[in-house]
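We close this part of the discussion by returning to an individual protein. Part of our work consisted of pairing the sequence of a single chain with a tokenised description of its backbone. What the numbers capture is local backbone geometry rather than side-chain detail. The amino acid sequence and the backbone structure tokens for this protein are reproduced below.
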Amino acid sequence: MIIMEIDKIAGPLRKVLREREIIARCELLLRTYDIVRGANLSQEEREELQKIVGKKIAPGIFASMMSNEPAFFDLPRLDTFTQMDGRIFHFLHTKRYSKQDFAEANRKFINSIPELRTIMCQSLKDLLAEFMSDAGYTLTSEGPREMVFSAPDRKVRAFIASSVRSLDIDKCRGEQGEDVVALVPSGESLEPFMQFYREKGLAAEEREMQIWVTNMEKGRIDPFVGYTTDLDIYNQFENPRLAEMVRNNWSRE
């Protein structure tokens, strides 16, 4: 059986890497999430794959592709990288590429951004649903960019943004008695987060809104702005003191 579930994922990954011999790191990560989701793994298949790549399947597969010990041995090893327009692109060191090849790879990436943004939002929703389930919450309603979770005596309304730059805190409002959370992905640069915090962090804190950040390469969620009073959520964070560190280091003097 393990060969079948590996092929359900490795096959589409091979196709992506044939079409994108030079591929943006963020695109490969998102394509991996999308392929794992599209594989519709059964619980038994998930458990078998988790024995190989760890609990977080998509991040585990991505990490293995970046390592010297890939989980799927017949996938290309993308062991060389460069930067274009501030983004990391991976490629094979065994092949020689021209400037035109890199320019074409960058063009393909830019053209893929609308599709990747959709994959990003769905992947964030999937990660949040798992995170909240582990904290004892049940998903009670869901929209394209909004989710509501309930636990005994608690309710959380979460808003999904594809980047911290696109997050509009004025549109993140809940009903009476709800905790309001916005979830954003981490990025390859801290600058957008520093800018957001200095411009809008205090306003978010004053309305008792929380902003969480997702490290998609690890499949982890941490607090960026605001504080939870729910110990079950607090215990799910990889670095629960991150928001406190941000506040101490990035606040205006």
In short: Strands lie at 23-24, 80-84, 87-91, 138-142, 146-151, 154-160, 179-185, 210-215, 220-225. The helical segments are 2-19, 25-38, 43-53, 57-66, 99-134, 191-206, 231-234, 242-250. The mean pLDDT is 92.
